[in-house]
Amino acid sequence: MDVLLLGASGRIGHRIADELLSRGHTVTGVSRSGHVDGIDDPDFETVAIDATNEVDVADLAEGHDAVASALGPGEDEDVDVLVEMSEAVVAGMRDAGVDRLVWTGGAGGLYVGPDTRLVETEDFPEDWVPIARAAIDAYDVISAADDLEWTYVAPAALIEPGERTGEYRTAEGELVADDDGESYISMEDFAVAFVDELESGDHVHTYLGTGY
After folding, report:
1. Is the pLDDT of residue 33 over 90?
2. Do residues 19 and 84 make contact, with C-beta atoms less than 8 angstroms apart?
3. For the chain, how big is the Rg over CA atoms in Å?
4. Of 96, 99, 200, 210, which has the maximum CB count within 10 A?
5. Which residues pair with 211 in a beta bridge?
6. Contact (CB, 8 A) for 208 and 200
7. Which CATH class is domain 2-211?
8. How would residue 32 be classed by pLDDT, with cut points 50, 70 and 90?
9. What is the pLDDT of residues 111-141, one digit of tens each?
């Protein structure tokens, strides 16, 4: 598969690139600078584009089998840039005639009860609320694109660098937690889950939670 990976230089994006390449896929890695450190593979090339520009996305997406996103706001950007990015990616894919999209989303929009999302719980860190709300708004943009084969893949409540075990669980629209109520996944195993879904297409039009 020839995959356009947006946000390839970030901690999660880099691990998704590694996972894709380890499985024999060809990857075009997009970053703001056009550089992705630490990957030396003949099936990997890098390019810089503005992910909020529909035309740039369309031009680059053309000819790819799928678009994978690990996009997030930069340190100096407003979190609402996530919505601009989602709008540009959806429009650009339509223009390019590419219909498979897997997007790295946020856990904040996952349900922990019948009418309660994680972001609405008392223990959710106040500092994280703006980015969680922006990620939900981006999901609303993506989920409205019925003509695309999108999947919105979210991590557990806590995601950190760790071990690649190849083990994980998923839940549609719900936070994945263990028997003690802990919700965690390593970035490496999140990348496994992400690429598994990209390859299988088992959860098209789904907000998919991941965790142990």
Report:
1. no
2. no
3. 16
4. 210
5. 169
6. no
7. alpha beta
8. confident
9. 999 999 999 999 999 999 999 999 999 999 9
pLDDT-based confidence at residue 156 (cuts at 50, 70, 90): very high
Token pair in block for residue 64: 């790819």
Whether residue 74 has pLDDT greater than 90: no
Going by DSSP bridges, is the β-strand pair 100-104/149-154 parallel, antiparallel, or unpaired?
parallel
**C-beta neighbour count of 184 within 10 angstroms:** 17
Distance, in Å, from the CA atom of 148 to the CA atom of 127, rounded to the nearest integer, reads 33
* Tokens coding 33: 């600078």
- Please give the pLDDT value at position 75: 80
CB 210 within 8 A of CB 168: yes
Tokens of 119: 């972001």
Residue 113 Cα distances to 117, 148, 186, angstroms: 7, 29, 24
Tell me how far apart the alpha carbons of residues 18 and 44 are, in angstroms, rounded to a whole number.
Answer: 10
> Which residues neighbour 61 within 8 Å (Cβ) at sequence distance 6 or greater?
4, 67, 92, 93, 96, 98
Quote the pTM value: 0.96
Structure tokens at 151: 């999947």
